[in-house]
Amino acid sequence: MTRLTGRALRLTVVVGENDTWHHKPLYSEIVHRAHAAGLAGASVFRGVEGFGASSLIHTSRLLSLSEDLPVAVVIVDTEPRVRAFLPQLDELVTEGLMTLDDCEVIGGTPTTDQADTPGETDAKGKKSL
After folding, report:
1. 102-118 exposure pattern, b = at least 16 Cβ within 10 A, e = fewer
2. Distance between the two ends of the chain, CA-based, in angstroms?
């Protein structure tokens, strides 16, 4: 198996937990579109507290009335693949925050198109790029 390693781009999309796209959670739509686009991976992280442009603090504390917590969708893949995915987000994300960061992948699972790529095997049985 070949792993995604080296230089990559991390896309982080922060939206509200209650934000929807056609009656389903927006974060779920983003993950499903990233999967359909063949990106290496996407994860959703639920915030316990935060605020955005509205300056209203959302929190998970028991006595709080707010339940619309922040969620962050984090996607990591090569720069060309992530940038090719950005137009889909323009359609989906009307409120929220999107950031791009250069990163270095030092371990992970193989991408779909890399899993069957022939490569040399190292001493531990791992294939190299």
Report:
1. eeebeeeeebeebeeee
2. 10
